[in-house]
């Protein structure tokens, strides 16, 4: 008989919030439902209850424990994860495992559930470098969730996770077991033959199509991409294009920079788009750019690999372990616009070899392998 699991996140599991974390969860659920009897717990958005989600051909209802708002918020959405406590009468004693992907959700469960196993999934270690107001609000919940948990998955490389585990256990006396995991991608969604054909056709020509996908926040630093791309157009390929996919507080500033540099026809901002569209955009690009201040194990980078796109990035936590310098992309060790531009030139000059290496590297992120790892670690508790 399958053991029962409550799979919980501050999400409607459809389109809120947009981004890699949602894709991560949907990918691993395909494996988890094979081994556990799962109830999915999520939220409504602006009062709209989510429709069921389809996993491996079967529909699963999203049990709503809270409502999040896209505007006029008095209580920050992140804190609404605590509202899971309101389901105490229904949930307590009903599940063998609680698997939460938002720390505030696990904290709420920890107040009433003492017998089941609690699992927390920490999506990266960015918060250690990101000192924005939102991260300051969330930081105490990260710590409390790990104190309550029996098992903590951390989306980062093994070396970083071991260092993080040592720090958390020493500083906060945490007893949970820590496990490093990669970000899963659905490799079958990428047509390898089509990718190979595009790589072959771009031999000995300057790269034309660049892409960034992710949040448009100060920490992600997408404004710098426009600065550097301006130089690439001027010095290397005047026909080059840059596509920026995502939304966030920096969107207007980026749009202004595009206008100031007269790049309106060369830099396209698409806002938040559905993930199926992102697959199409990656398949028609040549290289992936990110000036982020740090990542966990980036879904965007892993999907870029599957599409045969070398990655240009800075030498920052997460990315420095995921991007192999001179193999799957180029790391700008000088964290300047000039350093990033030099890295773009390297990728332009060595594109074919890098692109083929990326396709091979993508196999490590196969969602089935990662879901199996997560399942085995949970069952071993």
UniProtKB/TrEMBL annotation:
State whether keyword NADP applies. Answer: no
InterPro entries, alphabetized = Glyco_trans_1
- What keywords sit in the KW lines? Transferase
The yes or no answer to whether the keyword Transferase is present is: yes
Q: Cross-referenced SUPFAM superfamilies, in alphabetical order?
A: UDP-Glycosyltransferase/glycogen phosphorylase (SSF53756)
Q: Which Gene3D superfamilies match?
A: Glycogen Phosphorylase B
The GO terms describing molecular function are:
transferase activity
Show where the Glycosyl transferase family domain sits. 198-364
CDD domains of this UniProt entry? GT4_PimA-like (cd03801)
The protein depicted here goes by the name Glycosyltransferase family 4 protein
Species per Swiss-Prot/TrEMBL record? Lactobacillus delbrueckii
Lineage of source species: Bacteria, Bacillati, Bacillota, Bacilli, Lactobacillales
